[in-house]
Amino acid sequence: MQSYRKLRGLSQRELAARSGVALSLIRKVEQGERKSVRIETVRAWATALDVTTTALLGPVPETEQQSGNGDRLAPLRQALQGLPADVEDVPTADGLRSAIASAVRLYHDDEYAELTTILPVLVKEAQTPVEHGGPEALAVRARVLQLVGSLATQTRAFDVAEIALEGAVTDAIETGDRVEAASAVITSCWLLLRRRRLDEARSRAVDWADEIEPRMSRATSTELSAWGWLLLRGSAAAIRDNRPDEADEMMRLALSGAVRMGREHGSYHEYFTTFGPATVQMKRVENAVIEHHPERALRLAREVPPGSRPTSDNRNRHLLDVANAHVMLREYDKALDILSQLACEAPAWLPNQRYAKDMLQTIVGRRRTLTPEMRKLANAVGLEP
Description:
Residues 1-56 form the HTH cro/C1-type domain. The protein has 385 residues and is mainly α.
């Protein structure tokens, strides 16, 4: 960052004024005293310096990647490495599909501990039919690997996620089913976003959206969902990479697909997520928060279609965005109410969200003393002193 700042002829104080980021943080980053900075902060600097966020980003620090999940996922890592399976009976395709549906339900119910136990067995069982060939067996294994990648990305075990999702994309492409392949790519783009590989996430999402773009007049809901989610991933990468025009265009296209559908489509058993007007509206809220427009974010949040049924993880992420908009407006009590709600409703999901920890850290920093409820919440999100 220092080199870009000097090229622009800005002092640290002037960059602080332009970006709205504390001068003390800029000094710590440039002096190497602070290694980890939120991507929203980096984006503020990128906007002030008129560069992409990617130009300022480094790799995700190791301390942010594992969050204590490495050892817990060791059996899953071993299963992905293709260790010999101990399967007495060759599983049937129908049996595997049923097992996958149950596992996906566990994922969306935030039952991560149980899922971590089940998935190594499921990975090995999915390998057995593939040895006998056939696109159907590859599609089943792709679904299993995509679920592994989703769990590992959610719990920040990025090395496991990368292995699983590379396999999922490869298997899905070999099936010849473009929507199946796009589904795996959508999850891989989420991993790239979490790893701050913004340009790669944007490029992959855009390329695949172009590849599978449907004809609106006769596209199925599944085709529209896959295309729409690729656009949402691309928009998320573009807005974080300080490319607002690209982000808006992709969001506009995604909205056109959602409007064509008319309602949320999908279930916990198909492509791991839902898509429709509510999902797109929630992602519009997310983009507004990234752009640091809290009033617009809250207005957009009030326009989320009532009675919609997005998957729990998308809905939970949306609530974090709403909470952050309140933090930006210094409406800390409203933000705390939302975080407390999530601590009760998603106790396994919330501790894996660095976003929630950063918000609570901001709130705690503004208070001289903490209430018992705030201390309880700090423990729930894993906020360290």
